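I hope you will forgive my troubling you with a question about protein structure. I am sending you one protein, given as its amino acid sequence and as whole-number tokens for its backbone shapes. Thank you for your consideration; the sequence and its tokens are set out here:
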Amino acid sequence: MHQFNHPAQPATDDAQLLTAVVAAVQAAGLAVQARFSAWCNGTRLRTSGKTALNAAMAGTGQAVPDEGSAAYRRIGQSVTAMLAATLVVSVSVPATLQLVQVAAGRQDLFWQYSQVRSGLLAGALLVAEAGGSVTDLHGAPWHLDSTGLLASAPALSAAAVAVLATIA
């Protein structure tokens, strides 16, 4: 299955190896090829160098319509937990644009409990190739069958996983 580990680890044979995101509003064209780093308009993308979760700008997405009360509850509880642990939390869609911000170092982490998959694959590859950490919500390598996604600056991953571990 698709796994995006630390960029130093080789991608599996069936992993996404190339993606492009065009953000017309931002007049930005982003491109990435696995094992070759992530770029935006000729500039190499790098995730944030922050090391303290309480200084982090965090974000999450929303559930798909009718995903169910359990998903809504986890999202709400996770936002509350992250509000207490980070500097600021945003909730918006689409996930791809938040993941682009993580890859560019303008947002420090993004997590998602929902089963919304659109936007996660391209964004996960961008974050990984920009030097970020891309895991499931337990800290294991993320893949399409994971129940959630955490993409972050490498130094924030363990602390974010610890906060999210408090959500049932």
Summary: The longest strand covers residues 18-23. The helical segments are 69-85, 95-103, 120-129, 157-164.
